[in-house]
Amino acid sequence: MSNNMAFLIEVLIRLFLAVLVGGMIGSERARHGRAAGLRTHILVCIGGAVTALTGVYVSDVMGYGGDVLRISAQVISGIGFLGAGMIILKNNNTIMGLTTAAGVWTTSIIGIALGYGFYSGALIAALLAFTAVTFFSKFERKRKQSEVLYIEIDDMYHANQLVKEIEGVVEIEITHTFMPPKSKAQGHLGIRVTADDSIHDKIDALCEIEGVVFVEGE
Fold first, then answer.
1. Residue 120 and residue 113: Cα distance in Å, rounded?
2. Bridge-partner residues for 192, per DSSP?
3. Running DSSP on this structure, what letter comes out for residue 145?
4. pLDDT tier at 156 (50, 70, 90 boundaries)?
5. Is the pLDDT of residue 215 over 60?
6. CB-CB contact of 190 with 151 (8 Å)
7. Which residue has the higher pLDDT, 17 or 37?
8. Is 23 exposed, middle or buried (0-12, 13-18, 19+ CB in 10 A)?
9. Torsion angle, CA of 127/129/134/135, rounded to 10 degrees?
10. b or e along 141-151 (b: 16 or more beta carbons within 10 Å of the residue's beta carbon)?
11. CA-CA distance, 112 to 45, in Å (whole number)?
12. Helix (H) and strand (E) counts for the chain?
C-alpha cells in the first residue's frame, strides 16, 4: 500500500470519528433545544480535525518544515468567538449558554486530537464530555429563577427613599437598577427590581406605596 493511500485511509478514519464524536456531544445539546446542536458540534469537530490533518499533511507528505501545531493553536483561541455568541444574559440576569459554549470549545479540541491521530485521548475526552453534559447535570444544584418587577415612580428625587420602602414591603433581599421610565412622563423614574424568590405576589402592596405609579412583572 502506498504512503498516499495509507494517509488517505487515516484521513477517512479521523474525519469519520470526528463526525461521530461531534454528533454524540451535539446530540445532547440538540435535545435541550440549544442553538449550537448536532450540526454545529459536528462541523466544529470536523474543522478541528481538518486543521490538524492539514498540519500533518504539510509536514509529513509535502515535507515542509515548521510547527505543525501552530494552526491548531489558533483554532483553540479563535473558537472562543463562536462560543461568545452562544452566551446570553437574559432580562432577569440569568446567564445561559455557558455549557454549550464550553462544549463547542471542547469539541474543537477533540477534533484537533483526532486529526493528529491521538485516538485514545480524543475518545476518552469525548466520553467524559458526553458524560458531563448528560449525567452530571442531575447532580448540579438547580439555581432558582430570579423574578423581576418593573416599578415606576413619579419623583426621581426621592428614588432612594422609595427603594427602602420597596425593600420593606417585599421583605427579602433584592437588587435594583434605575432606568428611564416606560411612560416617558416628565420627572418619572423606572426601577427594575430583581429577587431570587417570589415577589410577584407583592405587586398589590407595592402599588400602595405613595409615589409608585404602577408595577408590572417582567
1. 9
2. 150, 177
3. P
4. confident
5. yes
6. yes
7. 17
8. middle
9. 80
10. eeeeebbbbbb
11. 7
12. 7, 6
